[in-house]
Write a structure and sequence with these properties.
Distance between the termini: 79 Å
Strand content: 25-35%
Strand order of the largest sheet: 7-8-6-11-15-14
Number of strands: 15
Radius of gyration: 28 Å
Order of helices and strands: EEHHHEEEHHEHHEEHEEEEEEEH
Helix content: 25-40%
Number of helices: 9
Largest sheet: 6 strands, mixed
Structural class: alpha+beta
């Protein structure tokens, strides 16, 4: 008796016959009278996962899969086009002289289980309010970007944005308005940097952006343009809310023996003692009423400073 929700793919190698259970055909969205074949099965598998399934079939036939095997593939139902995740577990049964006799495969739809795991994983890595990567995920991304810059001998810049007047907004209009302020700034940062930068919320009123292959020559101008894009006020329950930020950052140079980078709102020295930060630039805000400044710091080795 077949367990509910479990499909069966039974292949008899002796006479090259396949049988699919009604449950398996229903999982694929196929009519009950569908004749089983590898081509029909592949037509339901998403293109990116087809090579994996073909490789497994070849390994089972050649005896390279072992007696027990399993895999996970995505399918698109033939009737609705809905994408589903299928987990398969199979057994290779041999005849005398190690000849393939039979292959029995069970198939289970694990879409809901994966969705739950994906939601848990997403929650662990993201800030629920702004839906941006949180501090932990962002620091991991920063480590990866620095490693890439060191390997490729390029630049990577880290820019920190502090939301101005968040406490005043919370105290005078309410925390709901402060939440909308944070969400608005997150959306505007995402829209401005797009795929050029990796954005995260470090906590409180602090956001950060990683810009790979960015040098100080263009960074100051880009950060200033971002600040200008952020400062458009918005309306919350009939009241105008100011949306502004202050930014600062650092540039990592792979060829420097000494450098200073920013990690999680704190400066972390990774060079030898005695090196002092150098102010690259200080830009006034384009809004004369707002004394916001953009300050970028780094540390260079003597060779870079002399150059």
């Amino acid at each position: 008796m077949v367990a509910a929700g479990l499909g069966i793919w039974d292949y008899n190698a002796s006479d090259d016959q396949r049988e699919w259970s009604e449950e398996f055909k229903a999982m694929l969205g196929l009519p009950i009278n569908t004749a089983p074949s590898i081509d029909i099965a592949l037509s339901c598998v998403v293109p990116d996962d087809q090579p994996k399934l073909l490789a497994l079939i070849g390994a089972v036939r050649a005896g390279h899969s072992g007696h027990r095997f399993e895999t996970m593939v995505r399918i698109r139902r033939a009737d609705t086009g809905a994408e589903r995740w299928m987990k398969t577990a199979g057994w290779r049964i041999e005849a005398p002289l190690d000849r393939l006799h039979r292959v029995l495969v069970t198939v289970r739809d694990v879409t809901e289980e994966r969705n739950v795991r994906d939601r848990i994983r997403w929650t662990a890595d993201h800030d629920g309010m702004t839906r941006l990567p949180n501090r932990t995920a962002f620091v991991g991304r920063l480590d990866s970007a620095i490693a890439t810059a060191a390997r490729d001998r390029t630049h990577v810049a880290l820019v920190l944005f502090d939301v101005d007047h968040l406490k005043e907004t919370n105290d005078t209009i309410g925390h709901d308005a402060g939440d909308v302020l944070l969400q608005t700034l997150a959306d505007r940062l995402t829209n401005f940097f797009g795929k050029r930068g990796a954005i995260g919320r470090l906590g409180g009123d602090e956001f950060a952006v990683i810009l790979e292959r960015a040098g100080e020559d263009t960074l100051v101008l880009e950060v200033q343009a971002a600040l200008d894009a952020l400062q458009e006020p918005f309306t919350y329950e009939g009241r105008i809310v100011d949306c502004q930020a202050t930014a600062g950052g650092s540039v990592f140079r792979a060829w420097c023996e000494r450098r200073r980078i920013v990690r999680g709102c704190r400066h972390r020295t990774v060079c030898g003692e005695g090196a002092q930060p150098r102010r690259v630039s200080a830009l006034p805000s384009s809004d004369a009423r707002r004394p916001t400044k953009t300050i970028l710091h780094d540390q260079r080795c003597p060779r870079c400073r002399s150059g």
